[in-house]
Amino acid sequence: MKRKLFIARKLPEEVVAPLREKFEVRMWDEAEKQIPEKVLLEEARQVDALWTTITENVTRQLIEASPNLKVVSNLAVGFNNIDLEAAKEHGVIVTNTPDVLTETTADLAFALLLASARRITEAEQTVRNGEWTSWSATQLTGMDVFGATLGVIGMGRIGEAAARRAAGFNMRVLYHNRTRKLESEKRYGFEYASKDILLKEADFVLIFAPLTPETKNMIGEQELAKMKETAVLINVARGGIVDEEALYNALKDGTIWGAGLDVFEVEPVPMDHPLLTLSNVTVLPHIGSASIRTRLAMMNMNVQAMTDVLEGREPKNRVV
Ligand code: DGY
């Protein structure tokens, strides 16, 4: 009997094909619509392997209701959508997609930093809306990136890749992390700083930490108050790390100058979200790892991991 596998998002058929050869595969096939929780539970209940993305929650309830489940592969490096404790308790292996997305996500972080600093999306709208009526010396003036101080909170693989990009802009790099990165300090001149010093001195604060109970709302009213009035906050990690109400207030009353957000507490961000009313926020729909090559590499990694588990091998990139 073939092992059973469920794919909770519509994924390209050429990626899924090798799985279909070996396993009985079912896939949620509404491209633009997320699978309802009830349907996910029902599907998971019957399978040996579950392929998820960041939009599906793999809860304790799901794991406990799925007696044959052996592996959950998540199409992301982050895994805050999965109850790891429950997975561990029930012997369910969880895998993710580190490394292949590091440079791509760092590129996006820098793109968002540049776009926020130089008001790129506002500027484009000005042209498209027919509001570019004449050149003006003060129109759409922004912040210099060259020579500024970058503060990276969460110096993991992606944080460090973003920090390396700063050299091209002659930036000073401060970082805050649970552990010091002495090798990188020596090699690239990155400076370790307490969170307070980083917030006070950085012109651009980049968030790369994972979302955990400890990092939830790590950037709130008090932290924002420590930042420069000219500072820009960039978040490409997870929405829950930044207190969105506090950020809205800080951007509205000029506590900080701007923000660039690729992630939100609730995604897709509701259209009536107060942050969307502000022109000093650049917003993106969680596209950090979205290059064609990287997404393909991530998907292939998940295919390999699920195949390994179902064929009795230890998968790479095992989280638990
Ligand atoms: C990740 O990998 O965690 C991203 O947020 C999804 O691409």
Key attributes of the depicted protein:
320 residues, alpha/beta, Rossmann fold, 12 helices, binds (2R)-2,3-dihydroxypropanoic acid
Integer-rounded radius of gyration: 21 Å
Helix content: 25-40%
CATH architecture of the largest domain: 3-Layer(aba) Sandwich
Q: Considering the protein shown, what is the CATH homologous superfamily of the largest domain?
A: NAD(P)-binding Rossmann-like Domain
List the domain count as a whole number. Answer: 2
Task: Describe the global form.
Answer: globular
Question: Can you summarize the main beta sheet?
Answer: 7 strands, parallel
Cross-sheet strand order for the largest sheet:
8-7-6-9-10-11-12
CATH class of the largest domain: Alpha Beta
Low-confidence region ranges: none
> Number of DSSP strands?
12
Structure class = alpha/beta
In CATH, the topology of the largest domain is named Rossmann fold
Topology, element by element:
Layout: E1 4-7, H1 13-22, E2 24-27, H2 37-44, E3 49-52, H3 60-64, E4 71-74, H4 84-89, E5 93-95, H5 102-117, H6 120-128, E6 149-153, H7 157-165, E7 172-176, H8 182-188, E8 191-192, H9 195-201, E9 204-207, H10 221-226, E10 232-235, H11 244-252, E11 258-261, E12 281-283, H12 292-310
Parallel strand pairs: 1-2, 1-3, 3-4, 4-5, 6-7, 6-9, 7-8, 9-10, 10-11, 11-12
Helix pairs in contact: 1-12, 5-7
The structure holds (2R)-2,3-dihydroxypropanoic acid (DGY).
Residues 54, 76-78, 101, 288-289 line the site of (2R)-2,3-dihydroxypropanoic acid (DGY).
